[in-house]
Amino acid sequence: MVQDSYLPLLAFLVSLCAVPAIVWLRRAPNRREAATFVAAFLKFGFVLAMLPAVLGGEVLRFCFFEILPGLPLEFRVDGLGLAFALVASGLWIVTSLYSVGYMRGAGEGNQTRFFVCFAISLSATMGVAFAGNLFTLYVFYEMLSLSTYPLVTHHGDREARTGGRTYLGYLLGTSIAFVLPAMIYCYVKTGSPMTFASSGFLAGEVGPAGGMVLLLMLTFGFAKSGLMPFHSWLPGAMVAPTPVSALLHAVAVVKVGVFCVIRVFTGVFGTGFLGELDVAYVVSWAAAFTVVTSSLIAMSQDNLKRRLAFSTIGQLSYIVLGVSLLSPYAVQGSMMHIAMHAFGKITLFFCAGAIYVAAGKKYVSQLDGLGRTMPWTMGAFAIGAMSVTGLPLTGGLLSKIYLIWGAADAGQLALLAVFVVSSVLNGVYFFPIVYRAFFCAPEGGAAPGGIKEAPLACVVPLTFTAVVTVLLFFFPGLLFELSSLMIAAE
Amino acid sequence: MEPALASFLQEQIVPKFNYWVYVVLMMIGLYAMIAKNNLIKKLIGMSIFQTAIILFYVSVGAKDGAGIPILDHHTYEHALEHPGDEHIDRDGYANPLPHVLMLTAIVVGVSTLGLALAIAQRIFTSFGSIEEDEILEKLQPGGHD
Amino acid sequence: MIEFFGFLAHQAPLVTVLAPAFGALLVTLFGRGKAEAGLPLALISLSLSSVGAVVTLFHVLASGGELRYRLGGWAPPFGIEYRIDALAALTAAAVVLVGLVNAVFSKTRVAAEAGEKAPFFYTLYLFLLAGLCGIVFTNDAFNLYVLIEITSLTSYALIAMGNRRAALSSFNYVIMGTVGASLYLLGVGYLYIKTGTLNIDGMRAAMAEAGIWGDASITVAFILILVGLWTKMAFFPLHGWMPNAYSYAPTAVGTLMAPLMTKVMVYVMLRVMLFAFGADFSYGGAGCGDIVVALSTVAIVAGSLLALARSDIKKMLTYLIVAEVGYMVGGAWVGNEAGLTGAAYHILSDAAMTFCLFMAVSIIVLRTGDHRLTAFTGLFRKMPLTMIGFTVGALSMIGLPPTCGFFSKWYLVGGGIEAGRWDYVVALLFSSLVNAVIFFRIFERAYFGEMDEPAPAGDDADSRPSQPLERVPWSMLVPLFLAAAAVLLVGLFNNTLAGWLRAALAI
């Protein structure tokens, strides 16, 4: 079942290899961006090439070398990892196009540094997606934290510095203080290579008390998942240019966080073993608290991107909550929600960026009547909002159904109520925006003449992701298959 | 004198006189190094400290009634002719090794002292003082860290 | 021909030690009046010495255990013997390579800072390195003392070649260093009385034979030697001499001593613990393991916090060394294989990263003319190449993969967990976090540039270079990159290195 392959390595390396090219072509922006596109398409191609084998039940393995005694640095591509890699690498193409439009449209400086760091962070994301053991996961997790720092602080002003400080402080601090010791403890106590296995490599090695401590350290240590109380880096990171917020803080970085948490539940402990230990409920309640609280906070945010950020925190906790229910349906729902939410939320961020580029508006209260001048953008926004809320005809519904089904299956009616209530709250903080845009008269009375959209390079990507969001409702087959591979393995 | 004190003196102090002296010298040296304000006095303390250790080593090598550790001609020939015969009286010779070691230690001590004096001279030329508190005074505000 | 090379290979340890020593003599001999003669002679002798160290390393690894070399063919207990295992060979290689690279790095600085005294500078420099190699190889406790004093004397003189503050710090170092060395000597005296030998292995054998582990005099000797060595390695709270000595010393001296001196003393401590007294006594009979780990915990926390409070870059780095010494002492004392491996591995990795950071910081202080954290303002743009080196070293100090600092922390934390010393584990993580704060504060300044904040207090005329550099020469940048590469390579090949060290330290 395990098959050695160079494909994971290639998919990982291709964006790193693009870095010298991007630096070298820094004087010719068009060719520089071409390098990014070539790398992005190649990466997506390599990831796609792994699909047949993984769907056939294989695990693709690539081992660099043994980095610590009995502990290899290795990639193992399974269904979950591949699904995540597909989403991330696919959206990189779209985001690249959008970045070109946004960065040039908004006249941002330091674009070479921006594209370089973007490429590096995509490599790190692939590394996390393919990581075969906890150690490899940690290495690429840290790489991602560091490579995204220059992106978050791109503007280089005081606000960016504060945001960047919070960003690294939370992400680096929690990973060093919690994940590192927990990981070394696992290594010392089990002596195993810490390879993710469906039964969990910790199974039978720790008692309930130790298990509880380790679980909490690993879950909260991967603070990219935005679980409260370690969530404030995400709103802080919204000072970044919108393409960064879109890809990294709706897809890559935050999804890496929940991906790590899913790995901890399914690969480190194993859902069966966690059920025996009966400790996951702590995480469930922390996640449920985060879901409700962040939705409430989101309602009070006037800054559009901050509202989206708090929405993201809540949606991430859906995923954590789902996996902590330990029911197969909920776990599958969590895995699917990674992809569904990614498409929905990236659409929303793209829209927020497009609004800023075209109209220079950042606040919800300024959006009155914007649907008349930017119909495409606001239309896509409505679709994204529907998906994140979980309304029919968008992919978000499917994963949410699975999550709710899982909660029912686990007999957790209170948590089921959390899903339902928060969905209502999602609607409450999104649809006023849509309403304002389409049904309120613009400020100052007279509507400015005609349609004034953002550059085409911005509008095309956001339309594309909105379409995909709808398509995922009708054709979710691939995601089903990949995520059920993980369930079947248990 | 109290009998207990007398017996303590007889058993603990008198036979180990050298070692007591070394300890007392060492403490004097340490005190001077830490407490004295004058750099040269510190160095004198350092010298006393090192000398105390030399005294200790030399005491280790000494034996009651032993002579210098040089074999005389007859003994040497005897030893050559009768190998294995333990004719050489060990107690008649002081242990030479600690003494030899101390020759080296003295050299080390002298060079340390010489170097330290040179440094002290340099301090005097650049600060105009060899009193620690006056020097620190001159270094304000960056002096106390 | 083959025989000749075989002979050379056999003599490699001696070449390692003697090449710099003879080089020192030659520099004095030919360097009189010719200031430029020093550097070539130093480079030649250090290259020879490096070859010797590398050959020794291969020899030791090929023999699979340890190498014994009798000076002049005299057998112990009367003769002096070299005993070289993988740890010794690696440490010696680190010593001479750092010496060689630093000689290149400091080429322009020696000419500028020592002037016509350059030949004397190189004499001392070479003797210092010869002494350090000797310390690493020798198996004779008294010879070790003499070599420690040789390195100390040369380093006192080297430090005093700086400005007036350097002379003052050097004076303090003389006092503290002499106390340390004397205590060591005293402890060796006690051991000599009890065992009748000065050979390190012989001592352990004699103590085992006589079964005198429980004697008070053995414990006293142990404590005296340890306290002496701790003074020399600047183990908190005996670190008082170090920060000023290393930060006011001439550039070339700071970059040489900061990576080497404390680390070699940690090596000596390992040697004394494991080979003179034996692991059974050190971890069992002596009964002070718990206390020492607690002390190291204090050292780590105190060193980190003191570093956090500094605004002078070099002083901040020296306090980080205080914390790192705490890492190593704690690792050596938790009393298991992982901790010991971590301590030994950290000797190498700390040497690499301290070297890297000190070089980067020296360049920055010289180029900007500012010795405080404000020097870093906007440097990612102004001095990108230097900042690459600095970043690598800093990430290693924080302990992020794949730098060597991460892996030493991995072994040390593993050792602490295995021994159940949670205080030590927490201290290590705390220090990582504090280092992250320290260095990201610097990165922020270097990345964002001027943010019109008040300049930190404590500007100190003695720390400022008299004349800022016009441009950074390649002879400084290339050594920096070599050190940065070493930080990464020591990290990536930690498994191999740790394997050798584990075999050498098998307890």
What does this structure look like?
The complex is a heterotrimer of chains A (about 500), B (about 140) and C (about 500). Helices cover about 75% and strands about 5% of the residues of chain A. By secondary structure, chain A is mostly helical. Chain A has a domain at about 280-490. In chain A, strand 2 (about 60-70) and strand 3 form a beta hairpin. Chain A starts with a strand and ends with a helix. In chain B, helix 2 (about 15-35) runs antiparallel to helix 3 (about 40-60) and helix 3 (about 40-60) packs antiparallel against helix 5 (about 95-125). In chain B, about 20% of the residues are buried. Chain B is flat. Chain C contains 20 helices and two strands. The longest helix of chain C has about 35 residues, at about 250-285. The radius of gyration of chain C is 22 Å and the shape is globular. The relative contact order of chain C is 0.09. Classes of the chains: A mainly alpha (about 500), B mainly alpha (about 140), C mainly alpha (about 500). Chains in contact: A-C, B-C. The interface of A and C includes residues 138 and 142 of A.
Short synopsis of the structure:
Chain B is an all-alpha fold and 145 residues long. In chain B, 70% of the residues lie in helices and 0% in strands. Chain B has helices at 3-13, 17-35, 39-61, 73-81, 96-127, 132-139.
For the biggest sheet of chain B, the summary is:
none
Total number of beta strands of chain B: 0
Unreliable runs of chain B:
none
The helix content of chain A, as a percent range, equals over 70%
Strand content of chain B: under 5%
Q: What descriptors fit this protein?
A:
heterotrimer, A: 490 residues, mainly alpha, three-stranded mixed β-sheet, 3 strands, B: 145 residues, Helix Hairpins, 6 helices
